[in-house]
Write a structure and sequence with these properties.
One of its GO terms (molecular function) is glycosyltransferase activity. Its main location: membrane. Keywords: Glycosyltransferase, Membrane, Transferase, Transmembrane, Transmembrane helix. It is a multi-pass membrane protein. With 638 residues, this protein is α/β, with parallel strands linked by helices. It folds into 2 domains: 79 residues, no CATH class; 471 residues, Alpha-Beta Complex (Spore Coat Polysaccharide Biosynthesis Protein SpsA, Chain A), CATH 3.90.550. The chain contains 24 helices and 11 strands. The radius of gyration is 28 Å and the shape is elongated.
Length: 638
């Protein structure tokens, strides 16, 4: 049995003294590893940007606690248990939150002029005093603690301050947080619009109805033009746009640390399945940090995590409540401060990424131009066969991710990001100040802000499988949040339209109008287009009265053409072997999108009354055809 115990009975100044012993030699002498294990780990360290201890833990040779004890012996400093003996809150005044986060340290004890500071990286002691404490006349003495304990104590000491900062990271002119939630302005505008529309319908019903129909057709034309252009671009130039840098891909000289944020809320069944899926990742675990982000007070998720044995490369960060705001982007902003990777990713709780996904992302960033700040993967569903809604949802997703979005990228338009399978260069993400905590589609908003700041987003053909929402009301709730966020994003970035044109150019400015405003309006005014079916039931249409029968039938033909185009594009998107069984279901998509109009009206109401309300999507709903934790299908062409 090995003995790495080191305990100082009372806090006392401790300095490294005597002959310095390498960490590997300490572990070999303790009998925890042999010389061959050490040589193998040192060889691996040539390619991995990770400490030796993390590599040995990843190889399953030692535990993290054994490495911590060995580090205490190596540097001859005291090891402390911050959970059992936490620092007093009053000590927070001796160290700023920024310094605590940057150096991953917390003040632990004070004895006279001596301040004991807990750290998990004693190898950085030579910079600790100078950078964190400046010209302080205090005697700074380090003690050693587990990294997870330090993170928990940072939250305990500075959590409220950090939570408030997470809610206000993005500059006001790029955020919607300046809106007053209960303010009367939006309600007055809404009441005014309803009043004017009602008066017009009362005084000039046929003319008013025709005007709304023409606006709906205009929005539909904008959407159809974009879809057709994207479809042709995808057919001409392929499914994936060329990388920003055409240099042949090569392996990085040293693989970097990657941190992936996984926000959780009210998750009861998803934890074990999530761990099983992410354990299939082939990226070196010594360089992988998966951060499970919990909300304070979410006892359900906390209990789920507590009864789950997490791998060493998982961290848990609990976001303190500060005010009434509780959104995914606020949680992401808070947890970003605790990430240690130079690449930051985002997955959802139900996601099942391909095993090689992170390897491909890292390789892409290594060869891409420096202004490529984001890589967006492809999303797909693993429960497409559950029922009619899940089949149509999969058709819609395949159309967007495998046809429209690659075409949009080929056309050089702004890519509205999805909420998962996103990877960022950390430096660029921090320069943009993270996510807008008040925007309920923080991903799409961030895509626009990336473009406005001169960054690019590349699409990468690596797939993450997730759970399709297959129940009508949860589908409407989820879609209403997306549509509300699209409207919020359009309003935020259209407050100064000339500046937006200067930032992104006229073509991409028009793309923003189509992708955000026209998409929302299309669902809002869709019932007016359905009215073209009235003559089929023997009823007259108002357009026949105002514009004449010839114009009506011309518009009716255009409406049919648009529907046929949508169905044809969807069939093309699922023509590959994986989703070919969905082709017959494409003809039912017009009925599926009826749900979208219900979602749009819900979104419009919430935009006026509760713009920042986050309607949580429930994950992990059991169904016999969508087993949680099932094997992820391989990537195939569409």
């Amino acid at each position: 049995m090995s003995n790495l115990g080191l305990e100082l009975k009372a806090p006392s100044p401790a300095r490294a003294r005597g002959r310095y012993r390498p960490l590997g030699r300490i572990l070999v002498d303790a009998g925890l590893i042999d010389q061959a294990d050490l040589v193998h780990a040192l060889e691996a360290q040539r390619d991995l940007d990770a400490p030796l201890g993390e590599i040995l833990v990843a190889q399953g040779l030692v535990s993290r606690s054994e490495v911590t004890k060995a580090l205490a012996l190596q540097h001859q400093i005291q090891q402390v248990d911050l959970d059992a003996d936490p620092p007093k809150p009053m000590l927070a005044r001796h160290l700023s939150a920024e310094a605590s986060l940057h150096h991953k340290i917390v003040p632990w004890r004070r004895m006279g002029q001596t301040l004991f500071v807990a750290t998990s990286r004693p190898d950085t002691l030579h910079t600790l005093t100078r950078d964190a404490f400046g010209n302080s006349d205090r005697d700074i003495v380090p003690v050693l603690a587990e990294p997870a304990q330090i993170n928990r104590q940072i939250t305990a000491l500075y959590g409220t301050e950090l939570a408030k900062r997470a809610a206000e990271r993005v500059p006001p002119h790029e955020s919607c947080r300046t809106w007053r939630v209960a303010g009367p302005r939006r309600r007055i505008w809404a009441a005014g619009v309803i009043f004017v529309a009602s008066m017009l319908f009362a005084l000039l019903p046929a003319v008013t109805f025709t005007a709304f129909v023409l606006w709906a057709l205009f929005c539909s034309t904008m959407i159809m033009t974009l879809r057709l252009s994207a479809f042709l671009a995808r057919c001409l130039w392929g499914n994936t746009p060329l990388p920003s840098d055409p240099t042949a891909p090569s392996l990085p000289t040293r693989w970097p640390k990657v941190s992936v944020l996984v926000p959780l809320l009210h998750e009861e069944e998803i934890a074990s399945a999530l761990i099983a899926r992410l354990s299939q990742l082939s990226y070196p675990k010594a360089l992988l940090q998966v951060v499970l982000v919990l909300e304070e007070g979410d006892q359900m998720t906390r209990d789920t995590i507590a009864r789950t044995e997490l791998p060493f490369w998982f961290d848990v960060i609990e976001v303190p409540q500060a005010g009434k705001l509780r959104t995914k982007p606020r949680a992401l902003n808070y947890a970003l401060e605790f990430c240690s990777g130079s690449i930051i990713g985002v997955w959802d709780a139900e996601d099942a990424p391909e095993a090689e996904q992170i390897n491909r992302v890292v390789q892409h960033f290594d060869t891409a131009h420096k202004n490529v700040a984001c890589v967006q993967g492809v999303l797909d569903f693993y429960n497409a066969r559950t029922n009619w809604i899940s089949r149509c949802f999969t058709l819609e997703y395949a159309t967007w991710w495998r046809v429209i979005l690659p075409g949009v990228a080929h056309l050089g338009l702004i890519i509205p990001l999805g909420g998962t399978t996103l990877f960022f260069r950390r430096a660029a993400l921090e320069k943009l100040r993270g996510w807008d905590s008040h925007n309920v589609t923080e991903d799409a908003d961030l895509g626009v802000r990336l473009a406005r700041h001169g960054y690019k987003t590349d699409l990468l053909p690596t797939v993450t499988y997730e759970e399709a929402n297959f129940r009508a009301w949860p589908w409407i709730k989820q879609r209403s949040r997306w549509l509300k966020g699209f409207l919020i994003t359009w309003v935020v970035h259209s407050r100064a339209p000339l500046q937006l044109i200067r930032d992104v150019g006229l073509i991409r400015f028009l793309g923003v109008q189509v992708l955000f405003l026209a998409t929302f309006c299309q669902f809002i005014f869709a019932p007016l287009l359905w009215s073209f079916c009235l003559p089929l039931f023997g009823a007259a249409h108002p357009v026949q009265t105002t514009l004449g029968a010839d114009v009506f039938y011309g518009l009716f033909g255009y409406f049919l053409f648009a529907e046929i185009l949508n169905i044809s594009v969807a069939m093309t998107a699922v023509s590959g072997p994986q989703h070919r069984h969905l082709i017959p279901w494409a003809i039912t998509l017009p009925f599926y999108f009826i749900l979208g109009s219900f979602a749009a009206y819900k979104a419009l109401y919430e935009f006026v009354v509760t713009p920042f309300y986050w309607d949580k999507t429930e994950h992990g709903v059991p169904h016999k055809s969508s087993p949680i934790g099932s094997k992820v299908p391989p990537l195939r062409p569409p």
